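Need residues for this backbone.
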């Protein structure tokens, strides 16, 4: 087993890893080989992240390899944009794990099920020759009627008795494009009485006269998922084909097809685990596509989306997602994970790495009346608490400052320990100030506070030990930079956006994005896309892709505390 990097928790143990460990002990396979097989019909989401971490994690822990394979057998919904985004997202998520673990073709591309179309066609011909497949002319409706229901045996298609020669001829002509969409299928000749509906002469190929994003117009027939998937696994020498529970009922067909073609020893085996479900989230690609198409979000990488690209843009690190996947574990029990678990994982990852910075999101002007105009008192602030190696920086204390509107109350609530008329508060890394008077506009709104500072109260100063109850953050009004700050929150207000069959679009959080014009300490003008920041007392932030020199844009990744906890009774 490999040793883990400091950012990765110890590899978990679970029933799938136990199965893999057993195969390694028994020497069943020359090498542990897993695969992650997305269909390029949308962007990857946090559920896929669980599967990626499981499949690549197992390969990594057992000295094996995990193939990235595009399951591109359904040409109508697939697209190069999705293919490219998937590759980008997988590489980003597994990061350094990729070395020696990421299984790709010799040319560096992922594997594609469509690369096997010719081989898969050949296997189908071999099944016809073995009397295990036939060309069927039933329409979809007729086929459904023949199939029956689990408790009632089905009846076999009248076309099942076609001769091998006729089947070979018809199948070749299906490929050549002689027949219209939906007029014929190739079906396995299996068991119409099986209690498992998937075993009742399942369709292996359908006619679909549409171009494919990789094979173009070469094919008029396309293999079904159940047919292509197991045989692609076998072709690639996959040892453990790990998928989600809904494929458990497909496993007998998986086994039957691999054995019916019969070319592989050892052969792949399928294992199932429970998919990730998160509250306050919709996850299926189909629903995420609706949000994108109906412009309810700005795109697949909108920072509110549960997609890998959305979370990346929001400032979530790959380590946080990998830690999350490891901590939630892998079981066979269907369950619902509280999104707060993910959010806490993001917080604890950022807490350890985010540079501390001062920023004011809703500014209120403070004038230090006993400090000269043009004067500067440099204050030293640490970049990371309890980490001297992360260094310090100087921030300028000047006569005019910004503080947060929330940090002042003209008529203070009980136990309000921040600034109030006549009250004192400490400015972080600087001095204790006292609010002497207020300036108001014509409507009576407070526009400015006039304060005095106790210049002896700074750390190391004669009155440094003087206790005041509140400490607040601030930035200089003359030495600061402006920025657009996008405050993201959960996309849905209800834990189960689709409870009682309602449309999830009816419970979208109207406050999932608030944009403010903020004042930041000047060092943030040099912020980078790779760095993460904590604006002290506020939240974690990252630079957004829309940012430009002189027009900074930051995203709120996550608040410091769980603002939803009260709602959920936590
Ligand atoms: P969706 O249902 O969101 O459209 P999908 O299952 O159709 O997703 P695929 O591209 O077929 O998407 O999935 C690729 C792999 O990711 C599959 O092995 C699938 O089992 C796994 N996967 C998809 N969703 C989840 C999830 N929520 N939790 C764990 N694994 C998942
Ligand atoms: Mg799918």
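Answer:
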């Amino acid at each position: 087993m490999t040793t883990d990097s400091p950012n990765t928790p110890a590899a978990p143990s679970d029933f799938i890893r136990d199965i893999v460990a057993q195969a390694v002990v028994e020497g069943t396979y020359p090498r542990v080989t897993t695969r992650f097989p997305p269909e390029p019909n949308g962007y990857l989401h946090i559920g896929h992240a669980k599967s990626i971490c499981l499949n690549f994690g197992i390969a990594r822990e057992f000295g094996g390899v995990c193939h990235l394979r595009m399951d591109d057998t359904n040409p109508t919904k697939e697209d190069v944009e999705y293919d490219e985004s998937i590759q980008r997202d997988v590489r980003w998520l597994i990061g350094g794990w990729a070395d020696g673990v990421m299984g790709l073709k010799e040319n560096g591309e992922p594997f594609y099920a469509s690369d096997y179309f010719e081989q898969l066609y050949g296997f189908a011909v071999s099944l016809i020759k073995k009397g295990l497949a036939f060309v069927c002319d039933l329409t979809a409706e007729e086929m459904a009627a023949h199939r029956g229901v689990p408790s009632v045996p089905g009846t076999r298609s009248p076309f099942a008795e076609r001769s091998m020669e006729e089947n070979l001829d018809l199948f070749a002509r299906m490929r050549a494009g002689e027949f219209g969409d939906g007029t014929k299928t190739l079906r396995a000749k299996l068991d119409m009485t099986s209690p498992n509906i998937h075993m009742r002469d399942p369709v292996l190929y359908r006619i679909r006269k549409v171009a494919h994003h990789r094979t173009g117009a070469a094919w008029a027939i396309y293999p079904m998922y159940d047919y292509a998937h197991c045989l692609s696994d076998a072709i690639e020498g996959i040892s453990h084909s790990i998928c989600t529970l809904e494929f458990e009922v497909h496993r007998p067909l998986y086994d039957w097809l691999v054995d019916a073609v019969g070319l592989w020893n050892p052969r792949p085996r399928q294992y199932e685990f429970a998919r990730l479900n998160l509250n306050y989230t919709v996850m299926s690609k189909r629903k995420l596509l609706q949000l994108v198409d109906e412009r309810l979000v700005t795109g697949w990488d909108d920072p509110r989306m549960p997609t890998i690209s959305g979370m990346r843009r929001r400032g979530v690190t790959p380590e946080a997602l990998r830690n999350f996947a490891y901590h939630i574990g892998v079981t066979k029990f269907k369950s619902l994970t509280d999104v707060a678990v993910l959010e806490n994982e993001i917080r604890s990852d950022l807490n350890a790495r985010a540079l501390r910075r001062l920023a004011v999101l809703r500014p209120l002007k403070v004038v230090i009346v006993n400090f000269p105009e043009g004067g500067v008192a440099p204050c030293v602030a640490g970049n990371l608490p309890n980490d001297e190696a992360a260094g310090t920086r100087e921030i300028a204390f000047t006569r005019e400052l910004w503080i947060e509107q929330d940090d002042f109350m003209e008529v203070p609530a009980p136990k309000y320990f921040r600034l109030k008329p006549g009250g004192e508060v400490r400015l972080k890394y600087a001095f204790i100030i006292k609010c002497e008077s207020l300036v108001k506009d014509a409507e009576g709104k407070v526009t400015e506070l006039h304060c005095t500072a106790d210049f002896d109260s700074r750390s190391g100063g004669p009155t440094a030990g003087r206790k005041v109850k509140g400490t607040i953050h601030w930035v200089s009004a003359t030495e600061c930079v402006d920025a657009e700050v996008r405050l993201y929150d959960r996309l849905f207000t209800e834990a189960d956006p689709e409870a009682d069959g309602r449309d999830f679009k009816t419970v979208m959080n109207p406050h999932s994005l608030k944009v403010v014009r903020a004042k930041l300490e000047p060092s943030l003008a040099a912020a980078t896309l790779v760095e993460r920041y904590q604006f002290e007392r506020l939240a974690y932030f990252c630079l957004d892709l829309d940012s430009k020199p002189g027009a900074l844009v930051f995203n709120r990744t996550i608040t410091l505390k769980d603002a939803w906890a009260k709602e959920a009774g936590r």
